[in-house]
Amino acid sequence: DQFSGKVLLVENTRTAPLGTRILNLKRSAHTGDIFGAPTEALYFLVSLGIAAQAITGVLIWWNGRKRPLTVS
C-alpha cells in the first residue's frame, strides 16, 4: 500500500500464473540469463533472419510487379 507501506501482493516465479511465467522465461532467454552467450547469439541470428525475410519479401513483390501478365 502506498500510504501504509504494507505489502499487498507477493509474486515469485514459482507461484506466478502461467502467463507471467512465460513472459519471465521469454525475458530470461532474450537477455541471455538461461544459457548465456549462445542464447544471445541465437536471438541475434533469428533477428537477422526476420530482417532478411522483410527485405527479400519486398524484393520478391517488387520484381513480381514488373512482369507483364501473360495468359497461356
* Gap from first CA to last CA: 74 Å
- Helix percentage range: 55-70%
CA-based gyration radius: 23 Å
- Topology as a string of helices (H) and strands (E): HH
Number of helices: 2
SSE-based structural type: mainly alpha
Measured by DSSP, the beta-strand proportion falls in under 5%
Give a short synopsis of this structure.
The protein is mainly alpha-helical. It has helices at residues 18-31, 37-66.
Describe this entry's structure for a reader.
The structure is a single chain. By secondary structure, the protein is an all-alpha fold. The protein is 61% helix and 0% strand. It has helices spanning 18-31, 37-66. The chain is elongated. It starts with 17 loop residues before the first helix and ends in a 6-residue tail after the last helix.
Task: Identify the notable features of this structure and list them briefly.
72 residues, mainly alpha, elongated
SSE blueprint and pairings:
Blueprint: H1 18-31, H2 37-66
